[in-house]
Amino acid sequence: MVTMSPIATVIIFILMLLLVLLSLAYFTYSILLKTRPADRKKPVLPPGSMGWPYIGETFQLYSKNPNTFFALKQKRYGSIFKTHILGCPCVMVSSPEAAKFVLVTRAHLFKPTFPASKERMLGRQAIFFQQGDYHARLRRLVLRAFMPSAIRRTVADIEAVAVRTLRAWDGRRINTFQEMKTYAFNVALLSIFGKDEIEHIEELKECYYRLEKGYNSMPINLPGTLFHKAMKARKELERIVSKILASRRKKLVEFNDLLGSFMEAKEALTDEQITDNIIGVIFAARDTTASVLTWIVKYLGENPSVLQAVTEEQEEIMRSKEIDGDKYLNWDDTKLMPMTSRVIQETMRVASILSFTFREAVEDVNFEGYLIPKGWKVLPLFRNIHHSPDNFPEPEKFDPSRFERSPKANTFMPFGNGTHSCPGNELAKLEMLVLLHHLTTRYRWSLSGSEAGIQFGPFALPLNGLPISFSLKT
Ligand code: HEM
Ligand SMILES: *[C@@H]1O[C@H](CO)[C@@H](O)[C@H](O)[C@H]1NC(C)=O
């Protein structure tokens, strides 16, 4: 998959050699000191190998599908192990109990952590990076805009976006992921700004695309670098958001969208805090939803009987609306889609687009006799949990019927859990259901047949974004 220059090959060879030597040394050392946590009062580090200092096991992690790395490690060491990636010592956990401990019951001992460059691009005051009172306040504002009682009024507007999106694909060969990104972007903008800011939206989109190009760049702020261009685009986004804020303040009416929630006087967020969080929500909402939708198109294409069942469920809803003379989907319609909902759940389980999340221990923590030292990263491995045969029999099989019964607590966490879990999950499910209603009742598509691979960017995605041929049903 990856082609390398001869020099890189030599360097990697030397690194591997060092790794072997170090592992040997470590192996001898660990035999000499073989102790099990239960035998001791003092907690011990989890099992695992740290690899070469600094480089650690990053090379192994990135040289193959990261999931293979996690699966191998888990097989070797169990559901908690230590390793070293990107210069950071870390502990990876993959049992429901450990995930609950880190994300829910002891969440205060584990703070969110991101690369500094990401923080600068999304904005330092964005919700992801916060803890304590400011985080709780932001979360309340975000949840207020995205909870069912708020978004149920927007179903018809989301439907209009879906219909427009699908119509534009008719008769074309499309890149599913690219097109789904546009859809998720438009729905996110609708839920943030409502329908009334159209004059500023195109400009805002264009800036966001420029910002996005720098997301994974090196944080070097010199003219000409991607990072520099991205930071400039961020400045412009701030300016556009300020213009929208100013025009809304003149209108003196209340808005039910996210911006309206942020602007409410007694909550008093600064313009800068509002901008950081708008950019943050777009970032959190777009590629995630688009990746899941892309996987759904793939799995439906590969499982004709499942597609048939979903189509029948959606046709039934369409017929009942024709009889009642309702033109638009509403919230209650979306509650009559159990089969389609199970397809969404099973897709999120199998694809596990967020393979894991990151936290950092704020003090030495003892988990079941294991020490997690202060400053170490902690990664709950969602994908391993979703693919464990203990939680889901025949885990590699795509079988939506397994969700006819609810999964056990902390075995299915596509939206995380606890204090930082996804506040957009209801909106995400809603916009997927609405799109699938029109997709399955009106259109057909065919996969090109060469879409077997996975790529990570950083979300798991079918290779090349899943090119498909798309047309109206005849
Ligand atoms: C299918 C699509 C989506 C998936 C799979 C997803 C998944 C997640 C997960 C796993 C987290 C928690 C990360 C952690 O604990 O470290 C999260 C957080 C978040 N998500 Fe989503 N998400 C999706 C769509 C959305 C949408 C549509 C929005 C907004 C409209 C959104 C907004 C957020 C925000 C703001 C956070 C941060 C919450 C906090 O730090 O308190 N997400 N998401
Ligand atoms: C989150 O954790 C709580 C407490 O353990 C649990 O009751 C709930 O089911 C968990 N949520 C998920 C999605 O697993």
UniProtKB/TrEMBL annotation:
Listed SUPFAM superfamilies: Cytochrome P450
What enzyme class is recorded for this protein?
oxidoreductase
Cofactors required: heme
User: What GO biological process terms are annotated to this protein in UniProt?
Assistant: abscisic acid metabolic process; sterol metabolic process
The pathway where this protein functions is: Plant hormone degradation; abscisic acid degradation
InterPro entries noted in UniProt: Cyt_P450, Cyt_P450_CS, Cyt_P450_E_grp-I, Cyt_P450_sf
Q: Which GO terms describe its molecular function?
A: (+)-abscisic acid 8'-hydroxylase activity; heme binding; iron ion binding
Q: Pfam families, from UniProt?
A: p450
Task: Report the membrane topology from the UniProt record.
Answer: Single-pass membrane protein
Chain segments annotated as transmembrane: 6-32
Q: What is its main location?
A: membrane
Question: Which sites bind heme?
Answer: C422
Q: Which UniProt keywords apply?
A: Heme, Iron, Membrane, Metal-binding, Monooxygenase, Oxidoreductase, Transmembrane, Transmembrane helix
The answer, when asked if Oxidoreductase is one of the entry's keywords, is yes
The UniProt similarity line reads: Belongs to the cytochrome P450 family.
Annotated function: Involved in the oxidative degradation of abscisic acid.
Q: What is this protein called?
A: (+)-abscisic acid 8'-hydroxylase
Q: From what organism does this protein derive? A: Dioscorea cayennensis subsp. rotundata
Q: Corresponding gene? A: LOC120257939
